[in-house]
Amino acid sequence: MSNEVKKNYTKAELDKMSNAELAALGTELDDVTVAYRKERWPIENDPAEKRAAAGIMTWLIISIVMGIAFLGVYLFWPWEAKFHGDEGLLLFSLYTPLLGLTAGLSLAGLGFAIIQYVKKFIPEEVAVQRRHDGRSSELDRRTTTALLNDAWQTSTLGRRKVMKGLLGGAGLMAGLAIIAPMGGLIKNPWRVRHEMNYLGDGTLWTQGWSMARNGAKLYLGRDTGAIAELHETGKGDHYSTAGVSRLVRMRPEDLDAASMETVFPLLEEDVNDGDKYDAERDVYEQHMHSLHGPRNAVMLIRLRSADAEKAIEREGQEDFHYGDYYAYSKICTHIGCPTSLYEAQTNRILCPCHQSQFDALQHGKPVFGPAARALPQLPIDIDEEGYLIARGDFIEPVGPAFWERKS
Ligand code: FES
């Protein structure tokens, strides 16, 4: 630290020096000039000092109480989502504001206490130091330690046991307020959480199409965008989703060559279109579950026949397509955005998030951008009535690069 060593000190000489002497020596050796220094409370037992300490302790107590309150709210407050008309909606709607309020006050209390302590108890000082290069010598290390000791002693925190305890407690509670919510992010990815449905079974590598594993017949459902319909009756008007088919089956001829359609899994028992249409049936909720499945969206692409002839199939997926029709997961293998853009001229699929491009003629292989893995391909076919169906589930997890994936 110091360029110019003013004196060589032996270990014995340094051992003999008091902390104050070592601190003064360190200041000198470091080329530090103390331009101004003033103790905050030069008179012992000053009542104003006690008042200042009480104010700081009040902030620390607020911080601790709010930290405990935060943990209480986080662990015990009813957090399950409630909707209009549900019992407990008010309590649920207070959950997030209370978390924010208690965590905020806990951190703010600690922050105010620290600022107040520095302003009211740490000696006022203006010091100037010249910059030096190189590593520190033994002498510098010893004197720096002495300076830190001096700072600790002059801060008077060492003798303020109650405040020290409160400061530790407030720091702990404020720290917990930050760390505890992360507990909610810890999840066992292999744990099955519910029966297989449109959302999979709760593990990361299942989704709506995984129902095909259990032998369920799944159509490639086209989203009609249909919503509740207005019914006029003698007793007044009302909206109903009965007879509204959000998802409908598709036939190959529903798609032009060189075009793309986003499709979703549609269970045979949830079909309400064509010859199976029943105006009284209400399958709207099931269809919405399929649409809301975060990994369900699939791009059904119909290639031009001339292009399809050039398609290169991936090993093990040679029969996954149906004629010129290829179905790829819409979830980008980079970080999961919808790869919504299909460019018919080049047969490339583009993810708008970070511009990854995938080649529809080469089994969805990434050809540009940060994505490193191919888009999973859904095996498809048509049934005896000519509707497009899934022949099975994806053979690899959908979405961002899982460690289970080999491609
Ligand atoms: S999420 Fe698709 S490129 Fe990043």
TrEMBL record:
Keyword Disulfide bond in annotation: yes
Compartments where located: Cell membrane
Transmembrane among keywords: yes
InterPro entries for this protein: QcrA_N (IPR045603), Rieske_2Fe-2S (IPR017941), Rieske_2Fe-2S_sf (IPR036922), Rieske_Fe-S_prot (IPR014349)
Short name of any one Pfam family annotated for the protein: QcrA_N
Any single GO CC term annotated in Swiss-Prot or TrEMBL for this entry: plasma membrane
Keywords for this protein: 2Fe-2S, Cell membrane, Disulfide bond, Electron transport, Iron, Iron-sulfur, Membrane, Metal-binding, Oxidoreductase, Respiratory chain, Transmembrane, Transmembrane helix, Transport
Name of this chain's protein: Cytochrome bc1 complex Rieske iron-sulfur subunit
Species for this entry: Corynebacterium tuscaniense
